[in-house]
Write a structure and sequence with these properties.
The structure is a homotetramer of 190-residue chains. The first copy, chain A, is mainly alpha-helical and 190 residues long. Chain A is 76% helix and 0% strand. Chain A contains nine helices and no strands. In chain A, helix 1 packs antiparallel against helix 2, helix 2 packs parallel to helix 8 and helix 5 runs antiparallel to helix 7. The two termini of chain A are 23 Å apart. Chains in contact: A-B, A-D, B-C, C-D. Chains A and B meet through helix 1, helix 2 and helix 9 of A and helix 1, helix 3, helix 4 and helix 5 of B.
Chain lengths: 190, 190, 190, 190
């Protein structure tokens, strides 16, 4: 019962986050295709963030689908994750409107980093509420993706001021890492 | 369980898409009826897009209502559909604010085309997860509407630069095609 | 199953409608209480529309709670109702920002009128799908409120150009009419 | 059944409230870190309000999770609570954009006060519908937090005009009071 509402609330917040990001793609004043060109960086940022929020939704969904107990700590760890994800539209808009300027790339990476840490905390709260031998604990295993991603985000943040395109590449790379079909995911589904 | 959250998330995103479109109808500064006249193209675009999103919601709902298995591929095909539908408010606003200018009609048709293709992919993913003899596979049948619509959108896109009103007519026509009570729909419901 | 998603989608749309209305109360630039005074008509419009959307949600909820069958016609009648309700934030914002000018009062009344008619159509679709002897048909009875409201909205629209305050009074009056505890409601709940 | 939709609708509204607040953090025009500095008060207001809405969601969720009967009065008391909470984004934005000016702190406190009173009314409606010996009545007990909070908000409102930082401290303090793990919460969960 408690899990049901936790999922419903998270679905609501994630659905809104993913959708209000599109509001940052402001309708241009011109009527020709040329009016769309300045929107390209905003659009690309939107695509990347859409994929990231989609990945979070997918994993959140699988993680909660496999557990039975939800503690008070889980409720707050979940809100903490939603807080950082709620900053994604802002970071996306700022990065897109400033054509991937260094500071904006660094802040984008920082929001991704904090979201990844918040997800890690939530995962641990859920495992500790359900036991080391729960389905989730087994499915997560050594969790190399979850441990590698924050390191890569840090690389991206540092690279923002040195070679901005490296930062962009790192953020796209981490997204691809998670998009690639994950055996853990299919295992949990079956 | 997984299907339940997929539906809930999709409902959330579709509900928000349909509702934020109305934000493009900006409150005018004048207080007389004359102040509403410039909003007419924006309003008409809104009506058309509302019907399209309504059709997608209806069909999505019926499609998922008839299946029992949801695979990892289905999760991503669904996110892909939501991505293209999330661009409908932008395309609607641009078209409405520029009085159905050629480029805006073409982009609107392009977003409809990509949404239709994404829906087709999602349908195939669901059928392949549930088997050729599933209720959905039977209900969809030869799917002439699903196959004709992308062709018509292409006609609409091409017509945008030649006779814009033809493009508009085509987009309205495809919507009517789907609005007309569908025997498949009632069959699936019963 | 179908009813469940119809309710979820409607809840989503109504929740968003009720919440985006608050976005029309634009944050003022001044920092003193005086900066809030110009917001008073916007705020009052918001309160009235919040109550109206709340009434629609309540009644929609009770109406669907008592039925078992949902037909294709019901799905579309429901979308039709959501369409008119989705225009409430626009009408509210226009009326509030123009200090209840005649044309804005008339359009507000028109949106309420069309919503009331759409609700009436939806109710009839549901009754015809569930039978004249269904719980809903009995609970609705002769439905004097449902029949009186459109008449009162027409009075309000006409009064907008003659005595605007009468229109305002009528809109508030109809809301109170529905707010007053309804024996039908408690009967359906029990 | 009725409880289910009440929860779904409230989840939707709370999810939207928590998410649209982030729209008040407007994307700045500059591309350097310096462009973020003026956003600091807006960001801090956002964090505080996010925590408050999170607390309300958590408690709402626990309160409804423990009851079985929902009356017509509960439906309206719930809408009343959502009304005051829907004003939180406005109060947050006004306070943040004006750097915690006295009048904005007082209005913020007023919205928190009215939300707390609305929550108190809702709690009493639910208890009176479920009986003095219900799980909720026992769990709530003497409810010293629920009774102390409105008093503290009044102190905060008064302090706004005298020592604004005291008001800020009081609002943060009440949030911490509710964040501290509550034995009542774990008792209800178990």
């Amino acid at each position: 019962m408690f899990k049901g509402r936790l999922e419903a609330f998270s679905d609501g917040v994630l659905a809104i986050i993913i959708t209000i990001m599109v509001l940052e793609i402001k309708v241009p004043h011109g009527a020709g295709f040329g009016a769309l060109r300045p929107l390209l960086p905003v659009f690309l940022s939107y695509v990347l963030s859409f994929i990231y929020v989609g990945i979070y939704w997918n994993n959140h969904h699988l993680m909660l689908g496999s557990v039975s107990r939800v503690s008070g700590a889980v409720l707050w760890a979940n809100s903490h994750l939603l807080f950082w994800l709620s900053l994604v539209p802002f970071a996306t808009g700022w990065m897109g409107e400033n054509n991937f300027a260094p500071a904006t790339l660094a802040i984008y990476g920082f929001v991704l980093l904090m979201s990844a840490l918040a997800y890690f905390i939530l995962q641990n709260c859920i495992i500790s509420a359900n036991g080391r031998n729960s389905v989730l604990a087994t499915a997560v295993g050594r969790d190399w993706k979850g441990k590698l991603s924050p390191v890569l985000y840090c690389v991206g943040i540092a690279a923002s001021f040195w070679q901005p395109w490296v930062a962009g590449l790192v953020y796209v790379g981490v997204a691809l890492l998670w998009l690639v079909p994950d055996k853990r995911i299919s295992r949990v589904i079956e």
